[in-house]
Amino acid sequence: MITKETQELVDEGIMLPLMEDFYTIQGEGFHKGTAAYFIRIGGCDVGCHWCDVKESWNAAIHPPTHIGEIVEKASSLSKTVVITGGEPLTWDMTKITDALKAKGCKVHIETSGAYKLTGTWDWICLSPKKIKLPTEEIYKVANELKVIVFNKHDFKFAEEQAVRVNEDCILYLQPEWSNREKMMPQIVDYVMQNPKWKVSLQTHKYLNIP
């Protein structure tokens, strides 16, 4: 049970429920193959049944950590920092992104976009979910749209989302890992027929790295 004072710091974005942070290779989307420091923030109520980090959902089990500690560690190892979750926009990202940028870092986010966009970002990866759709504002500024394909109905959802993003947004279809063998041939065929889309793979899983 956290104290009232700690909760106030969390609400202000001075402390955040840190699940894990680590230096690795970006595995997905536009920046795949590049080194980056990942900060995984706990807390998510979007609840995708196929989520591969369900342990991130309950923020209460992840210790509130001062952003100064997080930023110091991240910026000492990489100048590219990716904030992910969980759903990082559950929390106010303003202070942590300001602190990272003050250290000269490029700051990326991976988000469902279900909550108000806070923080200052160099790259926004929007991965929308049917359960809780993105806010209108994030469609306008997303740099990449990454739709997870679990079954054939997700292609229709992908097209519905593609018409809402800005014209410069890069479009990706990514197979859900547990169903990749079934869906990958369908994704390949779809992209060949609809070349505005690109294929994204979770290459970090093939490389057996975090």
Automatic annotation (TrEMBL):
Cofactor note: Binds 1 S-adenosyl-L-methionine per subunit.
Keyword list, A-Z: 4Fe-4S, Iron, Iron-sulfur, Lyase, Magnesium, Metal-binding, Queuosine biosynthesis, S-adenosyl-L-methionine
Recorded metabolic or biological pathway in which this protein acts: Purine metabolism; 7-cyano-7-deazaguanine biosynthesis
EC main group: lyase
Sequence positions that bind substrate: I25, Q26, G27, R40, T84, P210
Cofactor(s) the protein needs: S-adenosyl-L-methionine; [4Fe-4S] cluster; Mg(2+)
Residues of the Radical SAM core domain: 31-210
Positions contributing to [4Fe-4S] cluster binding: C44, C48, C51
Entry superkingdom: Bacteria
EC number: 4.3.99.3
Pfam families: Radical_SAM
Keyword rRNA-binding set for record: no
InterPro entries in the record: 7-CO-7-deazaguanine_synth-like (IPR024924), Aldolase_TIM (IPR013785), rSAM (IPR007197), rSAM_sf (IPR058240)
Binding site residues for S-adenosyl-L-methionine: W50, C51, D52, G86, S127, P128, K129
Family: Belongs to the radical SAM superfamily. 7-carboxy-7-deazaguanine synthase family.
Biological function: Catalyzes the complex heterocyclic radical-mediated conversion of 6-carboxy-5,6,7,8-tetrahydropterin (CPH4) to 7-carboxy-7-deazaguanine (CDG), a step common to the biosynthetic pathways of all 7-deazapurine-containing compounds.
Name of the protein in its database record: 7-carboxy-7-deazaguanine synthase
Native organism: Autumnicola tepida
